[in-house]
Amino acid sequence: MDPLTLVMLAVLALLVFFMFRNGRKRQKDTLALQSQMVAGADVMTNFGLYGTIVSIDEEANKVALEIAPGTIVQIHRQTIARVVEPTVADDDLDETPVEDDTTAAITGEPEYGQRTAEEPSTDQVQADTNTEPKKGDA
Q1: pTM, entire model
Q2: Hey, which family's this protein in (predicted)?
């Protein structure tokens, strides 16, 4: 066998190895998601809808999802993308000052994208650079 054939077979073997590895990883992630899907869990669907699981029908692969108080929709079980974990507020967030519109107005700082009186506009700068002195001007 020539070296090129050996290299091609090695590349093919690597591709097959990574395909099986990724398949097993996806299967493991799916099983972990299904173990977290219980009644009362907050979830997000593939199409971005958030809700709380009311009930799961294993035979029909349907999930009753409450998207608003009193509004329950039936969706396919596989459309649930992930279980949403509640976020815990950090104590560090309370210590950092938050700058809002009133703070910017008090300090006199312009808002993002707002020009100050001292700054020439870009139109004025371009007009100044494009003007050439006339023949009578010296």
Answers
A1: 0.47
A2: Belongs to the YajC family.
